[in-house]
Amino acid sequence: MADAFTCRVEDLLDLDDRRALPDADLRLLSGAASSPEPPPDTRTAAAAVPEPSGSELVRLAADESATWAQWAEASNVGDIALDQLMADTRALASDFLTADPLPLFVRTRQLRDRVFSLLEGHQHPRQAADLYVVAGYLCGLLTWMSSDLGQLRDADTQGRTAWLCAELAGHNDLRAWVLSTRSKVAFWDGRLRDAVNYARRGAAYRPTGTVGVLLACQEADAWSQLGAETEALGALVRAEDARDTMSGEDDVGGIFACQPARQENYVAAVQLRIGRPADALRAADNALTLLKTQPVRAYGTEAQIHISKAAAHLATGEAEGAFEALAPVLALPPDHRMEPVTRRLGELPVDVNRAPAAGQVGLRAAIEEFRLHSAPRHLALSPGEGPA
């Protein structure tokens, strides 16, 4: 203040002020008046004040604890808000089975940002752990969506963040689901050994719900792609065992659930790769029958089942059956043509000996047209940056 008014420190005080000042403050004032140096700062003045003692010390310590308790008790999120965040996450995971992926990606990203913002604030440790669980599932959703849109590098980044959330939450079911998403990304990225390892690591957490079934199916998928028939069939057996011994329900559901039809879809794909088209056809037909009993039919899973059925027909030279099986797939709207579907469709052995040449040409043209107008291709050709 003396600097602001361009006067001496003692000029700011009158006689009454001086009488009211403690002796320690008067000594400081006298020192400031006699010294040509600037007055000491607040920390120096506070250090010169004697430490409280006796009952005053006890009272001060109690006040400090009370002040900290008020801070610790405060939270930027309540239990009802946490329940709502988890409910919103379940809705997104369910909508992913049937909705257009890009608008859903935007909604998932927005909810993730809300949860991240809350985590940057203050909440009770239990509430923070619950927020990390929600954040982990949302990043897991973004991992799955990014992969289905053909953005494997971005999917891997989302997977790492999801894993961090699972570790911070100490949540084994979330750990298992995150490792499932990472196994999926590794599979489509051609890192098949990584896909196997992620699936095995996830199963080692002994999770509840259906994730154990999915992890075993993913392991079988990767082994079959590697040409390891014995390992692939063994993993399918473990998937059945996981179904039989399953305990508890899935936390989220939707894409984070492995219904029997989804399991049979994996069985069909594995049987095809190890050279058993008849078994693959039976599994595909069984999967389609099971799918009809489900309240929500995932268009991605259904499309892959039809592709497996078509591939089984082509492997046995039944071209007409293949064309019929592919009709629902080729009719998918462009926004529903995800990367796994377009990739599997492109792998079909169209040139079969028993198929009429005209049919081969027509099918090849239809597949190429399908792939040209797919969601990943539209995303790659869209202006500006893709979703983050």
**Biggest sheet statistics:** none
Q: Span between N and C termini? A: 51 Å
Q: Work out the helix count.
A: 20
What are the secondary-structure elements, in order, as H or E?
A: HHHHHHHHHHHHHHHHHHHH
pLDDT averaged over residues: 88
What's the β-strand tally? 0
- Tell me, briefly, the overall form: elongated
Radius of gyration: 32 Å
Structural class by SSE content? mainly alpha
Helix % is: over 70%
β-strand amount: under 5%
Unreliable stretches covering 5 or more consecutive residues? none
Topology:
Elements: H1 2-5, H2 15-20, H3 23-34, H4 42-48, H5 54-73, H6 79-95, H7 101-119, H8 125-148, H9 152-169, H10 172-188, H11 192-204, H12 211-225, H13 229-244, H14 260-273, H15 277-292, H16 299-315, H17 319-330, H18 339-346, H19 357-372, H20 375-381
Helix pairs in contact: 6-7, 6-8, 7-8, 8-9, 8-10, 9-10, 10-11, 10-12, 11-12, 12-13, 12-14, 14-15, 14-16, 15-16, 16-17, 16-18
Please describe the structure with a list of short key phrases separated by commas or semicolons:
single chain; 388 residues; mainly alpha; 20 helices; 72% helix; 0% strand
